[in-house]
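Protocol step 6 of 9: fold each sequence in the batch and record its structure tokens directly after the sequence line. For illustration, a two-sequence batch is reproduced in full.

Sequence one:
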Amino acid sequence: MKPARKAAGLCLAAGLLVSCAQGPGHDGDEGDKAAKAWSRGGRTAAPERSDARGEKLAAESFRLFKSAESVRMTRTSGVRKASLLMDRAGNCTGTYDGGPMKRAEVIVVTGQGGEGAVYVRYTAEALAEILEEAARRGPATEAKVKPRVELIRGKYLKMPDPEGKFARQCDLQVGARTLPFETEGVEAGAPTVRHGVRVIPLTGMGESDDTLYVAAEGAPYMRFVAMESGGEMRFSDYGEPVRAKVPPAPLVVEADDMAGGLLTA
């Protein structure tokens, strides 16, 4: 596939998957930095205390996450929100809302060899916003954009993934590797309620001020991470099947059909 012909949908999908698959951390390399910071925090001598409740809760929450067959990871950061239900095979389904012109449903289907494809279906709202922007740019752009929008309306823009790049980013095991392996010094706060869920806050996990919230009732599954940057990660739907299937052929448009992207005149 020619790089210039896949820009529109590929950039949207890449932005979604990279930001969502990092686990409790920040976008891109920042996720790795956060994981290392948590590990460094684990090697720091903790003050004497009567129990190690925080350490035990953190260790068990990490174990549960790493052993889960699937998890929905929902990330909010500023105006962006992405929600993906992903499994250990690199399949995922979900939605992305990055603001005007960047709202879509996303499906990643991975084969046994790691190769696969990403399918992006823009929402009606996003397409209306694209048409608005095309009109703003002038008659020449509008005349070229309208048929492109109609071509993909209600359909999925397909981008092959022969090297498994998106599959790896959509792989739950990749997210699990961003978690720390040491929990020494983690402290548990008093139970509280966050987004209607009763949780226990865990702090002291390294150099950042991120707070991990684990379920206060039943097994201590990871439920939320409130990040120092102001963003948030939510974890839900543990063990739910990921029904990532290739859409019916009549609903698929090859990315090569989008010469230069939707708004390129």
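Sequence two, same batch, same settings:
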Amino acid sequence: MGRQVRRAGAVSAVVFGAVSLLTAAPAMADTSFATGTVTYMCSFPSIGQQPLDVRMTFTGPASVPAGGAITPGGIAGSLVFNATLNAVTFYASNRDGIRGTITTSLTGTNTTPASAEVTRLRIPEQIAPYVQGPRTVLFEQDTSTVVPTFGAGTPGQAAIGLGTTFRIDGALRQKDGTWSPWIFNCTVKNTNPAQNRAFSPAIPIT
């Protein structure tokens, strides 16, 4: 009799556990967030202020509770040197490669803080022969990248956006294999209406 009671108790525990698993809320998957093209004016050596198009993506929570954490992850993006910049920076100067790091400001709406910096986004070494037209340079988050955490504000929505400043601590490669440091300080281009720098979609705050 005692053996039957113990067995019944074990079966009840298994059934209860199975019901708990069935009724548990599913884990919330991350969402992909992306900007459109944002144009910055950058200080190119020898040719002065020139436009550089930037796009960026990250993954983050599909929603957060008020006061919860929003930490962008898997940050990646692209820089587009237009045809003229490509010709002057690479072809006319006998260069074929670039590498470096990026520091960019981020803004937050209905977040704390309202702005912060991402540092040491990596531009991996990219060597390619000159081709007429725009040149696209990729960048990404790696283990050395420092990413801020934003605190979600009041219930509603939060939005993360690219800030007004963007800095490239780069190096350009001559075709003989030597590298020269180049620093590009960039400020978002003033337009009317102002450019939309927000990542989409917004993040629901519950």
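Proceed to step 7 once all outputs are recorded. Observation for sequence two: Confidence is low (pLDDT under 50) at residues 2-28.
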